[in-house]
Structure formats: structure tokens, C-alpha cells
Amino acid sequence: MKAKIATTWLDGCSGCHMSFLDMDERILAIADRIELVYSPLVDFKTFPDQVDVTIVEGAVASVDDLNKIKKIRKHTRFLVALGDCAINANVPSMRNPIPVEQIINRAYVENAVIHDELPKHPALPDLLARVMPVHEVVKVDVFIPGCPPSNDTIFYAVAELLDGRIPDLTDKTRFGA
Amino acid sequence: MPVNGQIKIVTLKVNGKDVSARADQTILQVCRENEVFIPTLCHLEGLSNIGACRLCMVEVAGQKKLLPACTTTVNEGMEITTTTDRLGHYRRMILELIFSERNHTCSVCVSNNYCELQFLSQKLGIDHIRVPYRFPKFNVDASHPYFVLDHNRCILCTRCVRVCDEIEGAHVWDVSGRGIQARVITELNQPWGSAETCTQCGKCVNVCPVGALSDKGRSVAENKKRSEFLPYLTQRRREKI
Description:
The structure holds two protein chains of two kinds. Chain A is an alpha/beta fold.
């Protein structure tokens, strides 16, 4: 039976997903062994009930991220934090020493050339007071540091997971790699 | 330690292996000579040892407490162990606390790829920080014409303080505040650019193990440090060449 894999993208730049795709033809070998059930790369709108491995890119920065990751954890057997944003909140967390109101105001009022008003649409999720690494919110099973982790690292980690092993990434990647 | 004009030699065990050493050597020196890895951050060859970072702690048979390898001299018959679960636990914890205390953000740091903190955390298998990050608010002092001080990256190893005092003889740097409030300061907390005692030699920048001190104008992953000069300089001073 094929492993059910999901990927998701919280507060990050999508660079980790790009690096994932960057593994070229090796992705075909992986594709044969998995069923991609939810991802920004495919079109499913709802997160399935039972997923074997979910790979998370990005930090938890908004109410939407928070709800999403809690739901994902509930329906995922194995949660993988991919990249520095998911692991240490990285660049998104550089706003943390500054109060949220001040940041929103700076972006939408102080620096606005036209329409200087705060966004109010109900579909827009509120920002959390501070951006958090994924493991501060839910349990994470495997960490793959890097900004982004190289395609070789991601391929190795995913292949190991599909073979039922926890990947040892000590000599392959690090924070900022 | 000359005895009757002769240097006293002791024998001891490092990780079960017999080694010999001069009696005035530190555990760290002996281990490095014998290619036994001990992680360090505040230590730098050529500067005085202060045993501050606690990464070089080792176990010595018959001693309940751990001893810092950089400030403990060897003894005859000493039995030293440099890697145990207990040491690994403490070393990882120290590095994790260092990361959580400030805003290191390796991916956008001038010292990315050249950073001792980054390399050590990889070597010790740290793939995430278990304690919550503090995300403190720190300023960057870019008032100096050639160099930049970024408190966000500082690990308070005080190599800058020591190299400026001990080697350059200018003593521009000090540490102000205590505990979590501690910061390195220039000239009694004046902006670096206005520090009249600074000779602009750049030794502090080159011994800084992280991205706290950098050359002005360097961008992400561009600030390779050159601390190799230090042992030669101290040796030359000692021998008055």
C-alpha cells in the first residue's frame, strides 16, 4: 500500500517546497511509493482523516496557521518540520520583538501611498502576538533544518521515512544551511 | 613547570587511552594534542582561559562534579572521560539556551557558514531548540566606520573583551549588566564609533565566534573570520621577537 503523504505551507517563503521539487527525476521514484493527499502542489481542499507523514514548511504566525497545524497533528501519524522557519521560526520571527499593532500599522498605514487603512476583511486571519516554531505548538517527530534544506537532504529524509527509518541528518544539514 | 631545570611530565588516561603531558598543561590542551574532540566557545588559543561557556566540561574519575577542561591542569594518574551521556546532555542544553537567549537567525546572519555556534550545534546533533525562544529586543551598533556590533548574535564569550585587553592593549570592551541583561559594551557604554580608545585593529571582529562582530558592508554568509593570527602573535610576544 502506498504511504499517504501531505505537505503544508505556513509562514514561510515556499523555498522548502521548491527545494523538494528540485530533486529532479528522483521525485518519480518517490511518487511511485506515495499518494500525495494534501499539498499546495495539488488541489485537495480539505485535510484527510488519516495521513502517514505530513511535511510542514513555515512557522506558526497567524490564527489560521495555529488552527491548521493543530488539525494536521490530529490526523497525522508522523509530523516532519521542514526547514528553519518550521524549526526555529527563522525570518518570520524577526517581527517578534515588535508589537503586532505596530507592525500592521507600519505596513498598511504609515507606509501606504494610497488606501491607508487597516485590513478588516473577516477572511483575513489575525496575526499571533509572536511567531512560533511548530514544535512549540504541537509534537514534531522529525526535524530537517536548513534554509532551505538541500534537495539531497530532503530526498534522503523522505526515502528513509518511507523505508520506516528515522533519518539521521547530523552530517547533512544544519540551521542556516 | 620546570623541576631542577627539567619539565615535569605526567601520565594520565583520556577515554581509557594512556597519554603523557607536561604537568602545566590543561586537560583541553592535552586532549587537542591527542586529537580528542572537546567542544569550546569561550576558549581561543592565544587568549587567557576563563571557563565561562562550560561546553568543555569533562568527567574526571573520583570527582563528582564536572570540570572545565580549559582551566583544569592535568595531574599524574588522572582519568578523564570526554564523552558521556551526561556530558552530551549538558552540552546540548548549553547550546540550546544560547540559541534561545538571543535572535541568532542563522539563515540571514553575516557569519552563516563560518559560525562556531552553528557548527557546534550541528556536530552535537541539535536539530531543534527544546526551550521557548525569548526573542529579546536588541539594537545594532553600526556607528563604527569599519565594524558592526549586533547584540542579537552575541553569546557573551568575551573573546572580544580579552583580545582587546590582552593582545591589543586597548581595553575598549567590557561587559555591562548581569545574567540575562549582560551585554558587551565599548568604552563604558558609548557608541563604538565614538570610542577614542579603539585602534580599529579589528582583532575583536576576527576572534568573535559568531556574527555579533562583523566587518561593515558584509552581507549574509560573507564574514569569514581569521582568528589564526592569534597564536602566532602571542608566541611572538612571549619570545619578544
